[in-house]
Design brief:
Elements: H1 2-16, E1 37-42, H2 47-57, E2 65-80, E3 86-101, E4 109-119, H3 128-159
Parallel strand pairs: 1-2
Antiparallel strand pairs: 2-3, 3-4
Helix pairs in contact: 2-3
Length: about 170
């Protein structure tokens, strides 16, 4: 009886693992701009933005593309207390991108990405937990914005057939 139970268990275990694929799908992770793009950022000097560009683009060893990013940040107080202290603030980050090919093999790619988040400050003074939450929300919004442009630019470069891998 014990042998039958173990053999049925092994049979079902092996049968449930038949659809597992251990291969890495590299086609969706194609980044034509990685280590080939010089960046100029204007309008907002924030280390979070520079870090996001470095994570997605790397360090430019081959200057094939030039990216300009014009950044604007808007704060809107959604809920204001009697003493004019904001209870809830909406942040909107708008980045206008312009990607140009230095070798003039491709046409310029222009795009505008908008990302945002809402933040509720917990005190009017310094609050460590509140500040850490704000930084993480800001970083997530900036990474989403830069990632959205990177996806758009990579698909545009691929559709223009102007990428020379040699």
């Amino acid at each position: 009886m014990r042998f039958i139970f173990i053999s049925v268990f092994v049979l079902f275990s092996l049968g449930s693992c038949t659809n597992i694929n251990f291969l890495l799908d590299e086609s969706s992770a194609t980044n034509f701009l990685k280590n080939k793009t010089s960046i100029y950022i204007s309008g907002w000097d924030n280390p979070v933005l520079k870090e996001a560009f470095f994570l997605r683009l790397g360090e430019a060893s081959d200057n094939r593309f030039f990216l300009t990013a014009e950044v604007t940040q808007k704060q809107t107080k959604r809920s204001v207390d009697e003493n004019q202290v904001a209870k809830k603030i909406d942040y909107k980050i708008i980045i206008n991108y312009n990607l140009s090919d230095i070798e003039k093999n491709c046409s310029n790619i222009s795009n505008s990405q908008t990302s945002g988040f809402s933040f509720t400050p917990k005190s009017s003074g310094y609050n460590f937990a509140s500040d850490v939450l704000f930084e993480s929300l800001l970083k997530e919004a900036v990474l989403e914005n830069v990632g959205g442009f990177m996806d758009f630019a990579n698909s545009a470069l691929q559709s223009q057939n102007c990428i020379n891998e040699n």
